[in-house]
Amino acid sequence: MIKGVFMKGLEISFRDIDHSDAIEQHIRDKADKLTSTYDDITGIRAVVALPHNRSNKGKLAHVSVEVGLPGETVAITHDQHDQAEHEDMYLAIRHAFDKAQRKVRKIHERRVDSKRRSAAAPVIAE
C-alpha cells in the first residue's frame, strides 16, 4: 500500500510502512535544508519503504529521493542491504539526503563554472 503526502514541491510516499508524522517531519526538515541551500530546485520526491526481506538481518529501510532541477533530475536510491544500521529509518533518510546534496552541489558547481566560462569568453569583433 502506498500513502503519499504532497505539499508545494515536496512529495512524500510511504510503501510497506505505516505513515509516520515523525518520519514525514524528518524528511521535510531535510528537504527544507536542501531547498534553502539551492534555490533552483523545482521539487523533491521522497519514498520511504520497509520491504519484506527474507534474510535474518531484519527489516532494512529503503529510501529513494528525486530532486528536480531545471533540465534534469537527480535520483538517489539508498538501499544498503549490507549495512545493519539501515534498520534505522532516520539514518537511511539522512544518508539519502546527504548523497542527494552532494550530487546537487556538483551539478550546481558545474553550472556556475559553465556560466563563468561563457561570461569570460572574449567577444570577437569582425
Automatic annotation (TrEMBL):
Family matches, as InterPro entries: RHF-like, RHF/RaiA
Stored NCBIfam families: yfiA
Protein name: Ribosomal subunit interface protein
Upper taxonomic lineage: Bacteria, Pseudomonadati, Pseudomonadota, Gammaproteobacteria, Oceanospirillales
The gene coding this protein: raiA
